[in-house]
Specification:
By secondary structure, this protein is mainly alpha-helical. The protein folds into 2 domains: 100 residues; 93 residues, Winged helix-like DNA-binding domain superfamily/Winged helix DNA-binding domain (Arc Repressor Mutant, subunit A). It has 8 helices and 3 strands, in the order H-H-H-H-H-H-E-H-H-E-E. Strands 1-3-2 form a 3-stranded antiparallel β-sheet. The radius of gyration is 35 Å and the shape is rod-shaped. The two termini are 46 Å apart.
């Protein structure tokens, strides 16, 4: 809901930084001016006729002019405001659809030796027990497909354990692709998912067998 309000407010501000708001306001003023001139002309003409031919009627500017002017203005606003709101909502809906349909930006993976340090401090990664041989880990993880290798390295750099929702927020892959990659890492025995509230906690496992 906060995203919808932010987009709605942005679109309202953008109306007054472009020609749209000025065209709408100009059109309203033209129509309002036309009705004002017509009603004022009719009121003056009616006053001349009363003075010229006489009559029992009395002129009341509030009843005979202003009331009719604002009645017509209400009809104008009744049609213009829904049309303007429809345009704003249409723009908001298009922006939301474009944001949801935008593909996730994938960061190119660097070579494995440059991303995994030679010596991994044991206190920083308490989940990986027993201690892992860095050379063996580089060889095993280096044989992974590119996407799986990139995801493994990012989780390793985050401490070896991270929430699945945080992985999605990194923006490396879309949510469905993150799920597929984690399934493949689990099948290879390199990661495990544990239930953590509304999401999963992804924990890396020490590689114990060659990656097929």
């Amino acid at each position: 809901m906060s995203n919808v309000w932010a987009i709605f407010r942005r679109e309202i501000y953008s109306l007054f930084t472009s020609w749209i708001a000025y065209v709408v306001l100009g059109l309203f003023l033209v129509i309002f001016g036309y009705f004002f001139y017509s009603i004022l002309y009719s009121f003056i003409e009616y006053g001349f006729r009363v003075n010229e031919y006489g009559g029992s009627g009395t002129l009341n500017i509030n009843q005979d002019m202003i009331r009719w002017l604002f009645d017509n203005t209400a009809v104008i606003v009744l049609f213009m405001i829904p049309g303007l709101l429809f345009i704003i909502l249409l723009v908001v809906a298009l922006v939301l659809l474009l944001q949801r349909g935008a593909p996730a930006v994938q960061t190119p993976a660097s070579p494995m030796p440059a991303m995994i340090p030679r010596e991994i401090p044991q206190p920083a990664l308490p989940q990986l027990t027993p201690p892992v041989n860095p050379v063996q880990e580089r060889e095993l993880v280096g044989s992974l497909p590119e996407d799986q290798r990139l995801l493994y390295v990012r989780i390793r750099e985050a401490g070896g354990a991270v929430l699945q929702s945080d992985i999605v927020r990194w923006g490396l892959f879309s949510k469905p692709k993150v799920t597929r990659l984690l399934d493949r890492l689990e099948a290879r025995g390199l990661a495990v998912r544990e239930r953590h509230g509304m999401t999963n906690r992804v924990r890396l496992l020490p590689p114990t067998k060659p990656v097929s």
